[in-house]
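Hi everyone,

Forwarding the result from last night's run.
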Amino acid sequence: MTPTVPPLRARAISLAAAAFLSTPALFAQTATLPETRVTATRFAEPASTLPLGVSVITADQIRASGATTVNDAIVRLLGVPGRQDLSNGGDTAIDLRGFGATADSNQVVIVDGVRLSEGDSASPRLAGIPIESVERIEVLRGSGAVLYGEGATGGVIVITTKAGAGRQRASGATLYGGGGNDGFSDLRASARVATPSGFTLDADAQKRHSDGFRKNSASQSDAAAVTGQWSGDWLRLGAQYAQDHLAARLPGALGAAQYAADPTQTNTPDDHGAIRNDRAALFARADLADWQLAVDAAQRQKAVRSNFSGYEYDYDVDAHNYSVRGRNERKLGANTNVLVLGLDRNEWARTSVANASGASQSADAFYFKDDVILPAGTRVSGGVRTEQLHKEGSGVVLDDRQNAWDLGLSHPVAADWTAYVRVGRSYRLPNADEFSFTQPNVMLQPQTSQDSEVGARWKYARGSLDARLYRSALTHEIGFDPNAANAPYGANVNFDPTLREGLEVDWSHALTAALGLRVNANVRRATFRSGPYDGKDVPLVPRQTLAVRGDWVPVAGHHLDAGVNWVGSQHPDFDNTCRIPAYATADARYAWQFQRNAEFALGLTNLFDRKFYTQAFGCAGGQTTSIYPEPGRQVTASVRVQF
């Protein structure tokens, strides 16, 4: 039986009160943790003063957890709900703030300053980024529309590679080899060459293979990236090339009876697909007097080839991204003023291989954001973005200008904690898959959202706590409605008003010098505010998630990292008559450094071999159908050597 859950607002208030009022003696401790600086604000800023929430994952945390992809790291280390990707490529679908099937269209992905989000409903292929190359992952919670534009209502995922971070590093190399059950193998190599003249060359490669736990579920992927750059006293110039390739069999979905009888079976023994991405970029960073300047120019090509039960779906994507931005910091009397200005241009085109038909879009934007920091530490922030968007395909042409804005205020209530509030507006237009499949003679309207957030950060001697209450009221939300009028197979529509609201809590605490604890808890609601689904939950959005993770160094050279992720039940259908059951999974990784530069590790995922699924699309006779099962216990042994 599912326990009764108090109303969201009551739970949020009680948890927030606990965060602000618990253990007064702890507030007296002096914060000694180092300052965290984040770049999700387009330029590095101290996280403690920002009027917004940013969660950070470091390379050391990724390595300790045993995560093999960026998606895997976000799910394990931040407790963000993830759903199995349909391409069988390790690209777990990430959903930052409860958008369900349209999550990818409502959050933006940035890699080394370049937008990676697609112009259709496809997920950006984060699993194609060599995990050894990642320096840090920053997750900006809630709207990032002023800085990143269309589709950032749910948040922004900012990935910075070691080469992209631009910090000074010595020459060296790393070799990694791992293997496990179901024919799994994972090979990685990383190298960097640094010269006294300021030139640095980084190269990373990764190759993964799995036979899969289901019939017709084998997959193989490889990825590589090379970055060359030169750094002087005030200037940094560089170029980057990256490619990744996935070849996967596609086992498809199962019915309820099939899943119960044998989750390893398949209904599609001949389905298969392949994805190839090629990315190239040029970048420049300069410090001139009071200005920090940055320029990025990037091109990306993607080729998709797939066969679904005899139907071939093949297309190519060509994308171009350009960004010019600057940051100016100067004193205005006793105050400090931080101004950020920028221009973005994004182009994206998809062409069908079979008939040369396709879709395209372009966006040109100007934005500015100005922050005033008062002597007492109070930070007042305001920003505006204006973006001209053009989209076309299937005989449809969309031209529109949209504006985003936000206002924020943060204030250091005490030496060790800061409160903040922000409000704003965000937006998106339909993507290439949405504007071509609508109700007859109905044009989709732009989706807009009124966003608000209040939060607090507490940093004390042994840890930190970050709590956020948020609310996004959406108008004309865009999504697929299987029950749309005058559309026997469903259609993409503008829904009646919807709502996202919730509480997010991130807590990290050092129990001892050798034992750390991290907790990420979320209580959320994603509901329809009126119309035929009034009061119903948006499909594929769990109301609660909880991730608890421990990090233990019992003796020098030995390291144990383990965690439990619990995800509440969710509905696969708009009528909320079926449920995807709640599930809890555990993972653990033990590492032994047996030489100064060598490490052996043993990792386990789904430690207790739970039978569960994260992705389903159907509901028939009160039973959930179209189920994509998750694998059982996975064991991986690995060796890493550093030079």
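The two ends are 54 Å apart (CA to CA).

Cheers,
N.
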